[in-house]
Amino acid sequence: MGGSPVAGCNPVWLAQSRLRRRRFDDCIELCTQVLEERPLDQAAWYLKARALTLKNWVDDTEIEEQVGAHVRTRWGACNALALALHACMDGACSLARTGALAATLALRAEMNTS
Fold first, then answer.
1. Which helix (H) or strand (E) holds 61?
2. Domain map of the chain by residue range?
3. Among candidate residues 49, 111, 60, the one with its CA nearest the CA of residue 81
4. N or C: which end of the chain has fewer CB within 10 A?
């Protein structure tokens, strides 16, 4: 812990202060000490659970951004393939074949890296 608890200070209040200052390990240690003496102390249980949760927090937005970029890339390759095939049906086959081949290769490469 970052130092001994302040003499005469309520350890639950001190744990709450450590939680607010994002000193999660200190908060957890103080709550553990309180719970050894008083196992049914609801405030200590709440603070300890909150500190453990915040300490091990995973930012879901980063994961969503990575997955979103992956899906957008795959959809882009599928759209390029569809446009090339549509152009082939309209009569611009030689140009469309080149586009379709490139889009197919891009889509296969994308699927192989997943």
1. helix 60-89
2. 11-55, 60-113
3. 111
4. C
Q: Which tokens go with 50? A: 């909150």
Give 60's contacts (C-beta < 8 A, 6+ positions apart).
Answer: none
Q: Name the helix (H) or strand (E) containing 96.
A: helix 93-113
Tokens of 22: 């994002």
pLDDT in tens, 6-61: 667 899 999 999 999 999 999 999 999 999 999 999 999 999 999 999 998 876 66
Is the separation of the CB atoms in 99 and 87 below 8 Å? yes
CB 46 within 8 Å of CB 23:
no
Q: How far apart are CA 93 and CA 98, in angstroms?
A: 9
d(C-alpha 93, C-alpha 96), whole Å: 5
Whether the per-residue pLDDT at 69 is higher than 50: the answer is yes
Instruction: Determine the Cα–Cα distance for residues 87 and 78; give it in Å rounded to an integer.
Output: 14
